[in-house]
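Cross-check.
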Amino acid sequence: MNLISGKEISIPSLLDDKNNIDDFLADSSEKVVVVQGLGFVGAVMSIVCANALNEDYKVLGVDLANEQNYWKIASLNEGVFPIIADDPKIEEFYQQSQKKKNFLATYDTYAYSRADFIIVDINLDVQKNSDSENELTGYDVDLTPFKKAITSIGENCKEDVLVLIETTVPPGTSQNVVKPLIDAQLKARGLSTEKWKLGHSYERVMPGPQYIDSIQNFYRVYSGINEKSADATEIFLKTIISTAEYPLTRLGNTNATEMAKVLENSFRAMNIAFMVEWTRFAEQAGVNLYEVVKAIRMRPTHKNIMLPGIGVGGYCLTKDPLLASWANQEFFAGAGLQQSEKGVRINDKMPIYAFQYLSENIAKLDTRKVLLLGVSYRQDVGDTRYTPVETFYRCLTEAGSKVLLHDPHVAYWEELNLNVASDYSSLLKHKPDVIVISTGHSIYKTKEFQEKIMELSPILLYDTIGIFTEEQIIKFKSKHIVKVLGRGDI
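Predicted model, tokenized:
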């Protein structure tokens, strides 16, 4: 039994899912969409499909049958959406699907046998090897779990199904992995391998206030393994995406769309890495890099130049350049993408540099009480996957600091098995010596927060992401020591 939002979720309701699926689909003429994976992308994609713009679908969400997922599946079926986000559309879409009774979560792979469309939204991880300084020494892309998931589709699916890959994969995966695996399973079952369709359309999901819109009201790039598959993918996407306002872009083949996703994220990751040495330069030269970047951004061609920060987090930017480099070596007999790999190496070390900057500006960290404000990787999002705050936290604890944690969107830090406070006022009563703004949540920009900080005895206030305005910095400096990463003028 699990407790979410004050409601008990009973695991026994998961039993006999084949019958549950048949009952769910009984006497229904609607086409069936199955979403494989119920994580940060798949769970939300499921309710977007359940609220399609110009088609009525029955939607089945499938995840692995294990203890980690049982509570999530039961929660989705008992009226509590398990992902916490600031977007009110999530609850609205979820409740509409509950009212329409067109969404069911399950662990049973039998669901694939009933699907007209299968959307793949599962994780494909990169295992990084790093030394004690968090320097990337190597990495491994293990396709085994992904292959197992695709095989389970082929073992059950109809011979005319459309399989749509949304998972970020190494370029070449649809052609070299997905198609051969499903072909082999269909052939083993005595079914045709000519009727099914395979498309690729990568997600651009942005957890936060625009969660739903980043799926339904945003540009999509897509392709197919052949013309028939591309056409089928286009027809399906037009039922769930506002293509009149956000036109679809078709590329020539699945290698191209797979490359587009990792190139898109690699560019952003390298843009961030580029600013790391300029952050240090600005501090040495006594320059406020924020005002420099603001001035440069007035030029239309340079609006996307990045700002200083504590580091890169989330599921995409931390690994996608490595997927591209791996693919070029494994699928196309090419060389590794050295600049892309170097960008990842630099970004992985950003939290260590942020820690070093702090240690240079305050003595005796081993006796200090440090309050971290924000543990998620992104503003106003409750997602701690690959958050740079984890490395920063480890640096502090290794230095002997006593660390207090606050985040309005994260109650439990799963990766570190730590509880996180939601009320920063209670933590301020512990009289921290150092307060670090480690995530740019909106709550830290409020007047109430500023007033609470000004009530404290003098402390070191360390802003790692440039959240404070010039006026706020001046106000804080009237009482506290203020340090901002990338502001050498302080």
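The mean pLDDT is 93. The longest helix spans residues 254-285. Passed to J.P. for a second look.
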